[in-house]
Amino acid sequence: MKQSWWQHAVVYQVYPRSFQDSDGDGIGDLAGIIQRLPYIKELGVDVIWLNPVYKSPDRDNGYDISDYRSIQPRFGDMKTFDRLLEQAHALGLHLVMDLVVNHTSDQHEWFKKSRESKDSPYRDFYFWRDGEPGIPPNNWGSYFGGSTWEYDDASKQYYLHLFAKEQPDLNWENPQVRESIWDVMRFWLDKGVDGFRMDVINFISKPEGLPDAPNPEHAAYANVEPMVADGPKLNEYFKEMNSKVLSKYDAMSVGEMPSVTAQDAVEYAGLETGELNMVFQFDHVTLAFNKDPRLGKWNDEPVNLVALKRALSKWQQALDGKAWNSLYWNNHDRARAVSRFGDDRPEFRVRSAKMLALVLHMMQGTPYIYQGEELGMTNAHFTRLEQYQDIESLEAYHQFVDVEHLVDHDTMMRYLATESRDNARTPMQWDATAKGGFTEGTPWLELNTNHDEINVDAELNDPDSVLRFYQRLIELRHNNDLIVYGNYIELDPEDDEVFAYKRQYEGRTMLVLSNFTDQTVTRDYPVPVDGGLMISNYQDDQGATLRPYEAKAFMVA
Ligand code: TEU
Description:
Organism: Bifidobacterium crudilactis
Keywords: Glycosidase, Hydrolase
CATH superfamily of the largest domain: Glycosidases
Family: Belongs to the glycosyl hydrolase 13 family.
CATH topology of the largest domain: TIM Barrel
Number of helices: 16
Bound molecules: 1-O-alpha-D-glucopyranosyl-D-fructose
Helix content: 25-40%
CATH class of the largest domain: Alpha Beta
Number of strands: 22
Oligomer: single chain
Protein name: Alpha-glucosidase
CATH architecture of the largest domain: Alpha-Beta Barrel
InterPro entries: GH, GH13_cat_dom, Glyco_hydro_b, Malt_amylase-like_C, O16G_dom_2
């Protein structure tokens, strides 16, 4: 197998807005990230992925870009960015940017010009369609509520936006759009950035004629994802991107692809033939959707372990030797892993956070750690709607409670507490002081009240902390080709308490056992009694008896 630097790398995701504020405005910034580079280095990771730091009206926290070549003034300026890149490189860290090119902000020059008139040379940069006011061109529903179409009074046409109306979709059919995007990519790669995480990149090819989506539930608007994911020209666009840009650089690329199948991933990110290096798949993070399909992700039911194992194992097996997995529990769009898949009650939090870390980091692929995950940070446990800032959460509340009356206030508040993206976005917890060491000012989003206990300071001083455990996992991976490249064999897929698997590489075998319950369970795996233990989240070892949330990895042969 051809081996590349990003295959034995571990990535750390920084959400700049919530990482470290340096100027007291309550919003994290680039100078703050620079201050914290030594921390990231000490953790042992190899790559930093930065969520968008480009100029943006911030309707969707930077995923609405108004200028791809300048820095969000609240975050700093290009000089500070260059310093960040230089200092990261000096520490041996790669820096990967977010590339958001399915859509721009409505404040981007391209869109402003596109909007000016029907015969603007930029009109065709976006999707404009005729339609009567109140009767949009098709039945597609936006990710953030309502129709994907916004009526423009001046030109009497609608434009398409899969996300907020301030995020119009770019028309990739137009070769000028593609050339403009290649230029943006070259601009950053020429600066020396080490690659891109590509936002909803499998949505860029829309189906011919933009037909209605199936809507068997007669929802107010139909689910758009099956219509726009993996569209007809996607592969063609990836090939062009690769031949014109990516192939000219030693850059890492990971495409965020909702609904992607393992077969598609092999096609887009195949080891020998793929145009991208990795994809972010969604199977294991979309298992607890509401029984009422109209409510989509909004739910508070626990995730079923058998389904979780099936999802993760499927990807391990399908990509082995063919493509490369990305491994993640968390990112800025998901609830906190320890709260969603583990157990964030005080007596189990540390143990279950370590268990989740071990289970994921012993798999084949490139692990991604989202800021604060390495501390076992939990969901925000907000109780009032006013505490939320996220556009998706607020729009969902509005749509389902106020407009459609699908759920009542209390139910929706439970759903938000379980699934809101703001759970991931509360400020990084550096220390036990009032503002958690994040800012001197008023944080843009409330800190989690548990920062007095769960914080970097405390965890650096505790050899048994979640943070220290992540460090050890990263080190183990760096020193063990089996963990990086070994194949994957799932054991007892129907066991709904224990997640067990084997990895094999060059004649050696590793066994990974984990107990996903708060009870002691016993299994009959052949656990060696005389050594071989690589890492465990308990001090001592009781062989085939697994205590609450116990997880361990053994070299068995
Ligand atoms: O998210 C893509 C995406 O599919 C989201 O709709 C995701 O499913 C949702 O946030 C989960 O609840 C990307 C970015 O990661 C996200 O932050 C942006 O809001 C979105 O694209 C639009 O750019």
